[in-house]
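Exercise 7. Given the encoded structure of a 181-residue chain, write a plausible sequence.
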């Protein structure tokens, strides 16, 4: 009778994802993952040809996690892009290592930032439609301008240079929306 596999792909992905979330993707190495998973490196390389394949699975799990994070974030503002921006900035603050992997990395495994933001439910597209219904004649251009501000604020959160509270952030997002619209 064949021996039952105790270290599954799902278990390795979950363990590696938690490591990436807590320590950054750059610290997910075969040896460190094996130690955290309580195994040798052999099960890792039985399931993955190389570490890049594992990192891609971690990345995909992080994309899904961001989608879940956005879905559960509060949506209470009438102005387009405010809730989207607030969720993104809060994600940078609360999940900085995942934010860096998803939005500050050169390797997004053939996914654009827009694809990650838009998610399966069309988050950005929905905000652009909302802008159009409020009278915006070029929602794509408005999104680009808003996004430069939003992404900059999120990056400043990562570096510790953004210390505004939620109310101040919302006020800035609303002012920015009104200025660009």
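Solution.
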């Amino acid at each position: 009778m064949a021996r039952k596999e105790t270290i599954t792909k799902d278990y390795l992905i979950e363990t590696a994802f938690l490591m990436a979330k807590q320590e950054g993707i750059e610290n997910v190495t075969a040896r460190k993952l094996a130690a955290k998973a309580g195994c040798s490196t052999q099960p890792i390389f039985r399931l993955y040809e190389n570490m890049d394949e594992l990192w891609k699975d971690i990345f995909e799990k992080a994309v899904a996690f961001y989608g879940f994070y956005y879905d559960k974030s509060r949506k209470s503002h009438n102005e387009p892009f405010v809730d989207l921006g607030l969720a993104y900035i809060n994600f940078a603050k609360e999940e900085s290592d995942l934010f860096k992997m998803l939005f500050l990395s050169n390797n997004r495994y053939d996914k654009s930032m827009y694809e990650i933001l838009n998610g399966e439910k069309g988050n950005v597209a929905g905000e652009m439609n909302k802008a159009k219904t409020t009278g915006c004649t070029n929602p794509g251009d408005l999104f680009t301008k808003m996004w430069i501000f939003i992404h900059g604020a999120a990056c400043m959160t990562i570096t510790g240079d953004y210390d505004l509270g939620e109310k101040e952030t919302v006020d800035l997002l609303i002012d920015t929306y009104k200025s660009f619209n």
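Remark. The chain has a mean pLDDT of 94. Students should compare their own answers with the one above.
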